[in-house]
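Appendix B. Chain record.
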Amino acid sequence: MSIWSWLKLTAALWLIRKSAKAFGWLLVTAAAIAAWPLTIAAATGYLAAWLRGWPPGRLWRAAAWALPMTAVYAIGQALRLRAWQAVALAPASDWANAWGLLAAHAILRAGLLVAPVAIPAGLALAGVLWAWRIYAITTAWPA
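Structure tokens predicted for this chain:
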């Protein structure tokens, strides 16, 4: 093996690793955009916890306090749709309808349509991410 072939192999392996990492970040970004209501709620909760110094339990309690909104939403969907399969799929259809509202520049209506499910889930996710961040900081290897 010559030096030139070793350099080409090293460069090719580096490029493959970097492209795989970039593809992974693109997948994460695409998932965050697709789940935009959850992403907005989680980012807002995470930012609030970071700026105010809240413990993760505070976000989880906020998510629990938002669950009655989800229960009222589920009861309303059950009364309107009258089939458990349709009620189970109602958040997904509301999410799809919210994309149409976003395309029509009705941002507030789109947010209100998905809020009953997205806010508690987003706050719970923000609590998990914040707990992971606190754990990662406190267990970091001393430099």
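Further analysis of this model is presented in Appendix C.
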